[in-house]
UniProtKB/TrEMBL annotation:
Name listed for the protein in its UniProt record: Probable membrane transporter protein
Record flagged with keyword Transport: yes
Protein's cellular compartments: Cell membrane
Organism domain of life: Bacteria
Organism, as annotated: Bradyrhizobium symbiodeficiens
Length: 256
């Protein structure tokens, strides 16, 4: 038996290999810089396979990759502040999941492309929230991030921009972020499962793509400290921009 015998019926071997290539590149970005995986993966992968399938695929493989980080994050995080922002995700994730489950694939791809382009501009701006900490604002940021995660697994930039600007120790900020996404991913898993987005097809595909993504994460992590972070971040930004452009539905007749 070959790998093709285990693939979902709507996924050819060439599609699976293309998803593996995208997963390796996006995993490398995450391993080195700690961000960018979804912003690279989703625009490209959703132009190769159904957005619902690739969103569930990324959720599963990224949740497994991040799970070992949660115990340490639990010890170091400001759990009270994290709980407030997680409350927002509890609202936002199901809403984003609902839209992912009912929208037409092409419409979803346009939304993903627009979202990722906006989030890239947010990253490029260097925005950090430096105002006072308000519960309503934390819930709002959590809801926005949760919505982006539910729709396209792209909830990172709002949370990163918010917490890295707070007057707290970097180690606590990082732990808060890791813990938040552990909770957000759990909400997404439940939400995706109840709407049928976590399917046999997505789980089978995760067994094929997941190891390649993990290799990319490990490779990116091995580059940290050896390559210039400034240069590598610029490369990540460029990759995100190219992913947005290449993933545009209007280019389907040209690139695909």
């Amino acid at each position: 038996m070959s790998i093709a015998d285990f693939l979902p019926k709507d996924v050819s071997l060439s599609i699976a290999m293309a998803l593996c290539a995208v997963a390796f590149v996006s995993g490398t970005a995450r391993g080195f810089s700690g961000f960018g995986s979804a912003l690279i993966f989703m625009p490209l992968a959703s132009s190769i396979a159904a957005p619902r399938l690739v969103a569930a695929l990324l959720l599963v493989i990224d949740f497994i990759a991040a799970a070992p980080l949660l115990p340490d994050a639990w010890r170091k995080a400001d759990r009270k502040a994290t709980a407030v922002i997680v409350l927002g995700a509890l609202v936002g994730v199901p809403v984003g999941t609902y839209f992912l489950s009912v929208l037409e694939p092409v419409t979803t791809r346009w939304i993903i492309s627009c979202f990722v382009a906006a989030l890239l501009l947010l990253l490029l701006s260097g925005w950090r929230y430096r105002g006072k900490d308000h519960a309503w604002l934390s819930v709002g940021i959590g809801s926005l991030s949760g919505f982006c995660s539910g729709l396209a697994q792209t909830g990172g930039p709002p949370i990163v921009g918010y917490w890295l600007g707070r007057p707290i120790a970097p180690i606590v900020a990082r732990a808060n972020i890791v813990l938040f996404f552990g909770a957000s991913d759990f909400f997404s898993l439940v939400s995706y499962a109840t709407t049928g987005l976590i399917s046999r097809e997505s789980l089978v595909l995760s067994l094929i793509v997941g190891p390649v993504y993990a290799i990319g994460v490990a490779f990116g992590a091995s580059l940290f400290g050896r390559a210039s972070e400034k240069v590598f971040r610029a490369i990540c930004y460029a990759l995100i921009a190219m992913a947005v452009i290449a993933g545009l539905p209007v280019l389907d007749g040209v690139l695909r």
